[in-house]
Amino acid sequence: MSETLKNEKALVVFSGGQDSTTCMFYAKAHFKEVELVTFQYGQRHDLEIEVAKNIASEQGLKHHVLDMSLLSQLSPNALTDHSMQIEDNEDGVPNTFVPARNLLFLSFAGALAYQIGAKHIITGVCETDFSGYPDCRDSFIKSMNLSLNLSMDKDFVIHTPLMWLNKKETWALSDELDALSYIRNKTLTCYNGVMSDGCGECPACHLRNQGLQQYLESKGSL
Ligand SMILES: [Zn+2]
């Protein structure tokens, strides 16, 4: 990335999980000024919001928490309906899927970026591990970038540093950013609300821990 970007401001879509925390460190490495936005929408665990707030304050970053609780009115699903189990539907899309969630999040992130004067929006979406989520695909992000620019007559740039990485490569990136142990210990990815390495049993833990083991093995430190 060119040096000139270092003088610009970035807004990171931030959940306090592994991916968005990696994006936060990526943003800190590349941009002069970084702010975070977290969407509150009836997550299974209030702990998620607390984790995000703690990381933001430890990193000394301005943190915007936006209320998106209307999402739970739109779709009963395993992320917001606490009585449901998390599993894959027959069509291979996990039942944690909230239709158009990322479309909505990026729209609000764009509106906030406009207000705070941030040209860059960074999001941890990824095609590699979550191909079941259509609004995490690269083609959607490009379309969204164009729509944001047209809607506000701006030239925002959406960055997706994790788009083509698998979990092993995401851990490698966090290591390059000198943040592997911070991310391993301070983030929450587990669907059962267990910090750090998590419950070890839910799909999010499987993905995260398998990638971490693969990375540590490849590095020869396991
Ligand atoms: Zn878990």
TrEMBL record:
Cofactor(s) this protein cannot do without: Zn(2+)
Metabolic or biological pathway: Purine metabolism; 7-cyano-7-deazaguanine biosynthesis
Cofactor note: Binds 1 zinc ion per subunit.
Record's keyword terms, sorted: ATP-binding, Ligase, Metal-binding, Nucleotide-binding, Queuosine biosynthesis, Zinc
Keyword Ligase tagged: yes
Residue sites binding Zn(2+) per the record: C190, C199, C202, C205
GO biological process: tRNA queuosine(34) biosynthetic process
One Pfam family, short name: QueC
EC number: 6.3.4.20
EC main group: ligase
GO molecular function list: ATP binding; ligase activity, forming carbon-nitrogen bonds; zinc ion binding
Positions contributing to ATP binding: F14, S15, G16, G17, Q18, D19, S20, T21, T22, C23, M24
Keyword Zinc: yes
InterPro entries per record: QueC, Rossmann-like_a/b/a_fold
Reaction catalysed by this enzyme: 7-carboxy-7-carbaguanine + NH4(+) + 2 ATP = 7-cyano-7-carbaguanine + 2 AMP + 2 diphosphate + 2 H(+)
Assembly and interaction partners: Homodimer.
PANTHER family: 7-CYANO-7-DEAZAGUANINE SYNTHASE
Function according to Swiss-Prot or TrEMBL: Catalyzes the ATP-dependent conversion of 7-carboxy-7-deazaguanine (CDG) to 7-cyano-7-deazaguanine (preQ(0)).
HAMAP family: QueC
Family: Belongs to the QueC family.
Record's protein name: 7-cyano-7-deazaguanine synthase
Lineage: Bacteria, Bacillati, Bacillota, Bacilli, Bacillales
Gene: queC
